[in-house]
Design brief:
Length: about 450
């Protein structure tokens, strides 16, 4: 273990699922915690943090380029609008973005994610090629843009290059507007190895069952290391198409035909049945929920009680970037259940953890770490030295009893009640005018009058 190089003292800290008082925190030169000791008087010469501290969370599912589209699909000019019409419009954005614009957009997003309490982001990365579908001279150009953006912002990055082979179960080729996404198993494995950095690791992803051949999914699982993510059962139309093509529901197909284990993380899993939940639990796979995006796209409500009861690892993600803070995601997650079931505190467990916020936070903290490929996470020796300092003067948090702070963060505070954010022992800037200015320039280039087809985006 590295020698202690920095120390801080916190009046309170969230350790192993509960608040502890007067906590001494030490980080080594490797950016990991060397000591986390509660019930210690503040030592001389150690920085006293201004408020209680929490571990950062993992944003376990992100499409950074879609930050350029957030807020620009909230008008309906036709008789019907759903996920599939949104997707067609999103493809129009994907066809335009350059590597430089992607870096600018992602850097701005990653600063926002840090301000929203995320210290690691899993980038489900399928925007690979030039505008015409040809390969860049450096096939990893778009991956490097994301890594450079993460380094500039200071956030940790889990890069997940995506296998994307076909447009649908019965459509063996990609659509013309999917030409920038095309990859083979060999491409994905090469991209997994291509980008490295002190805060960068990599796994792989399969876009979806409809977008990859079964033999390719098997080959990718066999040839890769680290986490493996896949979109699954987000939309009822996807479930119907999968049943028609394979005779199985999507999660059922994975449980029967894929080598599901703890490496696998199923994104959305919105439309499941109890037998599928049981099968996923038996195999040790995880699920990544994206409540803000799932609500925005009208996906439906996940069987949260079923996944929680089965002890399936759960994580959360910002996905399409309409929400970019974990308190808001957890609020959406619980409120969707309350609206659907007409009950309160659906996610609480009275016999074990009566706090809804605490139970969800602990579950997504552990599940997010697994989704990002970390064996240790949180305020504990050996984990990366990430933390969030709460703004105790936030009007929504003032006066709250100390033991209810986490409830207040999720259910009554602003989406970003954090005064400071640390990643790997270093404080991150939560406002960067240079990053913001480059984002403005990229958005201007993408959305200036005449730059995009149609008026629905403006």
């Amino acid at each position: 273990m590295a020698a202690v190089s920095q120390r801080w003292w916190a009046p309170r800290a969230w350790i192993d699922g509960r608040w502890r008082d007067r906590v001494l925190l030490g980080a080594g030169t490797d950016g990991c915690w060397t000591e986390v000791v509660p019930d210690v008087a503040a030592p001389d010469g150690v920085e006293t943090l201004s408020g209680p501290v929490l571990p950062g969370l993992v944003d376990a599912h992100s499409h950074a380029f879609q930050r350029a589209f957030a807020g620009l699909a909230e008008r309906r000019d036709t008789a019907h609008d759903d996920f599939w019409s949104w997707r067609d419009r999103m493809y129009g954005v994907a066809l335009r973005i350059t590597p430089g614009q992607l870096r600018a957009i992602a850097a701005h997003l990653y600063v926002e994610l840090l301000a929203g309490g995320y210290t690691q982001v899993c980038e489900f990365h399928y925007l690979q090629h030039d505008h015409d579908g040809s390969r860049y001279a450096d096939p990893a150009a778009m991956s490097r843009a994301l890594a450079d953006a993460a380094a500039e912002a200071g956030i940790g990055l889990t890069l997940l290059p995506v296998l994307y082979e076909r447009a649908g179960f019965t459509t063996p080729e990609l659509r013309a507007d999917q030409r920038r996404f095309a990859t083979s198993v060999a491409d994905v494995l090469a991209l997994q190895r291509a980008v490295t950095g002190p805060l960068v690791n990599a796994g792989v992803a399969v876009h979806s069952l409809r977008a990859a051949r079964p033999e390719s999914i098997a080959a990718l699982a066999e040839g890769s290391a680290g986490p493996l993510h896949i979109h699954v059962a987000e939309q009822t139309a996807e479930v119907d198409d999968c049943v028609a093509a394979t005779g199985c529901r999507p999660i059922e197909w994975l449980a029967r035909h894929a080598p599901l284990d703890s490496r696998w993380h199923l994104i959305h899993a919105t439309h499941s049945v109890p037998s599928e939940i049981a099968a996923v639990a038996a195999r040790g796979a995880g699920v990544v929920l994206c409540p803000g995006t799932e609500g925005n796209l009208g996906d439906g409500l996940v069987d949260l009680s079923g996944w929680l009861a089965a002890e399936v690892p759960l994580a959360i993600g910002s996905d399409s970037q309409v929400t970019r803070a974990w308190p808001e995601e957890l609020r959406w997650l619980e409120y969707g259940q309350r609206l659907g079931l007409r009950r309160r505190n659906v996610s609480a467990a009275p016999d074990a953890e009566p706090s809804t916020a605490a139970r969800l936070f602990e579950r997504v903290s552990a599940g997010g770490a697994a989704a990002a490929g970390f064996a240790r996470w949180g305020l504990k020796p050996g984990a990366r030295a990430d933390l969030l300092v709460l703004d105790r003067l936030d009007p929504a948090l003032r006066g709250l009893p100390a033991d209810h702070l986490l409830d207040g963060i999720v259910f009554t505070a602003s989406a970003r009640p954090f005064a400071r954010v640390m990643v790997a022992g270093r404080w991150c800037a939560l406002n960067d005018e240079g990053i913001a200015s480059r984002f403005d320039d990229a958005m201007q280039a993408l959305w200036a009058p005449g730059a995009t087809p149609g008026s629905a985006y403006r």
